[in-house]
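Section: Multi-chain targets

For targets with more than one molecule, the full set of components is provided together so that the structure can be written out for the assembly as a whole rather than chain by chain. Components appear in the order listed by the source. The example entry contains two components.
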Amino acid sequence: MAPQLDPVDKRQAAREVIDILQEISDLLNTNLDRTELSLCVSLIENGVNPDALATVIKDLRKEAVNSKRVSNAPPATTE
Amino acid sequence: MSTSTRPTTRPRRIDDALSQLVESLLPEIPLSALPQDHDFSDDDLALAAAEEHRHHAQLERAWRTLEAHPSSGADPTSPAGRRGSSAGEDINHAPDLIKRKLRRENASPEKIVRFSNLYTRLLTQPVLSQKWGILYLLYKLSETDEEQQPVERSRSPLMDEGNLQNMLGRGAGRPRRGAVVESEDDEGPAVSSSASQPPRVSRESRAQRPSSLHRDWEESTERASASRASHYETGDERDGMASPTETPASHARSTESVENGLLRDLPFNLQGLSSTNLQFQSTSVLKLPSNLPAPIVSLLNALAEPCLLYKELAGFVESAEGGLVNQSLRAAVANELRSYLGLVATLEAEIRQALAAIGNASTMQGVRKGGVTLKRCMVWTRDATMALRLMSLIVEEARDKKGGQLISLIHGFSSSHGDPFVCAFAEKLLAHVTRPFYDMLRLWIYDGELSDPYKEFFVAESDLRTTADPRRTATSVWEDKYKLDDDMVPSIITQDFAKKVFLIGKSLNFIRYGCGDSGWVEAYSKEASKELRYGDTATLETSIDEAYKTTMARLIHLMDDKFKLFDHLRALKKYLLLGQGDFIALLMESLASNLDRPANSQYRHTLTAQLEHAIRASNAQYDSPDVLRRLDARMLELSHGEIGWDCFTLEYKIDAPVDVVITPWGSTQYLKVFNFLWRVKRVEFALNSTWRRCMTGARGVLGSVDDKVGPDWKRARCVIAEMIHFVCQLQYYILFEVIESSWDQLQAEVSKPGCTLDDLIEAHTKYLNSITHKGLLGSATASRYGVSTSASAKQPEESFLSQLHHILKIMLSYKDAVDGLYSFSVAEFTRRQELSAKIETRTAQGRWGVTDRDMLPRRANSRGGASMASTPDIRPASAGPDGIDTPFSLSAQDLAADDNMLASLRVRLRDLSADFKSRLTTLLSDLSYQPDVDMRFLAVVMNFNDVYKPRRRAKPTSGARDRDRERERAKRKAAASAAAANAGTGSGTESSREMRRERSAGAGPEPGNGNGAAT
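Its structure, encoded as tokens over all components, is:
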């Protein structure tokens, strides 16, 4: 890290990094949007194990799918 | 990092971020998703509550996962557990994984390129400290859903870091096939640190194995004895298999269990150990159970190969014989085997895990779930098998090879094999195998030491001291101590290069031992020595070139400065090749009287004294004392009745390091040249002294007897002038055209930049050869021009040397004859003097000056001349003054003898001159057909005005005989003409004989000349 960077530069650099990561993320089809990506970045920068984070995200996604399935199935019967 | 810095309490920032993440990831709960039976009135509230609830639950779960992960190392299947300790490796690993994945999923490289660009850009950004983490996260997230069930995640043991890198030694570019492709998805960081774990597992399992193994083994032996045993050699009898007797359907379950058993045993088999089902009959036979279905048998056949190969290679590694290169090959193979064992260990862990899974759900599904089947194992071991196969091939071929040949063998695989896998593998082996070779090379080119206990280097200490080459009879440190063994030059270096290396080491060795300058060598090796290894050919080449230059320069410098090689060469030319004219002239003059005596009356001390005198009195005294010290005069051994001239020789002593250039052979060549030149010089000296006497005599003594021997003298002077011309031309030719020009060439060769000691030796040899050859000394066959002169060499003609020797001999005897003529003339002169004195005294006494009695002898002569000729000059001393009458009769006899002697002298002179002329003509005609320009030039110089008529060679084969015949004819003709001339002069003397009445009483100075002429 370069501590002597002033805040403006830092933000600029951070944006750039996120841009790059966003591109890589698109390349890899991770389905992460920009917010999620920055959240992940900050998590990892704070020392979270990326492997674990990946598991968490996957779990959450699964959960989301499940809940969607749960929520999708009943409307078919209700409508 | 994550383990160490993980806070015990949940830090706020992480909590916030995580909660946001959960929020953004989870979709809004739609209204319809709410449990319908509850039917809340306030949907929003319900939604919020549900979301809140879910959010908390998910957040809690996420936290659990996060916290569980870093500490989950106990679980071997958990990918994260393995990577806590090896995060450092992952920094580069994550992008690699991504690249690999992209390559796998996309045919075109375009995406990879894009990724690489992005990655490099990312690397330059200073903001992030955990770049790899992000990338890894992205990578993880990009995975497809199929491996969400952890049990099914079948990771390929091949992909384990060590094995992948070590065992296969190939880049990521190698396409994967079949089942391995999908299983590769979660290779990577998850397994990156697994190296330490599987062995432990396998140890455990091995510990619990024996009891069951024993039981199984007993069963299987019974079964094996009952059924027909079938043997399978690796790779050979692939098609032999047990035919399945049962239907597949009923057999499925038993096959299942059999396969499981086989799987369980497989790791042991792969380590070359016998197991229940598969037993090693010998090192090369693995027995398969006979009651298996064909597919399994064929699988086992394939799997048997690495087992057997491993066993064989392990045996090779255990063995201990062979040289250093062999040992390093063994070490390299052992290294490869170790990584193979690592693979086996991982495999075993997989198998155990799979079998445990089967234990849980003992259905067909279990196997599927376990994900490890024989087929898979086969695929996993496939590359390892190839490596093993290649190693076994190398080991097989290396059996009776050593050193350089072995390296060449492996290099052959790496450089000319079509399969990139084989190339890469051989290349890797080569790096290990060549290590001892490069050590030897380094020691050789920097220290000049040969440390080669197993004779593996391409330089060998030559032990045969008796060389076949006669030119190098003595042992020469330079030539014979080491030799280059072309067979042992490994193909990683070229022949040219090998020669250079050989020369460098040899020079260093020579500097150290021959020149006694080991201090320099040590300093040099300390300063220049550097590590040499396989691969960086360019560095190797430059360092060797450098070493070559340094060493050669040093050697030449030593030769020049310390050992004064060039001074010695110059001195040899000066003294042995008669370059120092005043010295030689002085030496010859002072030695002439001495050397006329027989060889056995020559004494060394007189010779050395004369030599010393010649040195002191000539310019040689200014030469360095070191050079003069080496100069020595001695007599040659071959002294059988010869006079001193024939066996006198000068010698120049050469000692240790310089004799590498001026070899003993060279010294003999010098001596040969010196002897020849000395002889020519001697003839010149003799002829000159005769000429001088003639010239001085012509004014006094000879002038007064002109009437009697005048024509003889004229003729003799002509012939002597001819001879002197010949000798002068010969000397001029040898000294200036041959020696000086060769010397010039030698100088040019030697002063060339980058001249090596070998070049020096070569140049010197060439110099000597050209001198001996052009100086008419070389026998045609031994000369280096042998090819071109072989046609003339085949003829039975005399060599130039013997022709010249004949001519010189003729000259010497001619000189003797002329001396005889001179003394005859002197005798004649004194007799006349006495006669006139007698006449005067008689006249003074008043008698007749000439009486009748003076005329008497003529009649007496005509009566018994022949018988009296044999005793020409035995004159009793008492017959002098007392009797006046008696002398007349005696002098009459003498007079007759004199006449006889004169005649025979004339004949002799004529014969000799004719012989000289014919031989010279022969020589000239031979010379003019020489291929060498210089030698033809000699012929032209000698015959510049076409005095001699060299015959053209009619036919090369009959030429010699013709020449002989012609020479005979010429001789006869010359003799005839000489006889005619003799008769003519004889009549002349007849008329002048009246003048002679008396004969002097003074003793004739010529003791045996007349006698010799008469016989």
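Residues 49-79 of chain A form one domain.
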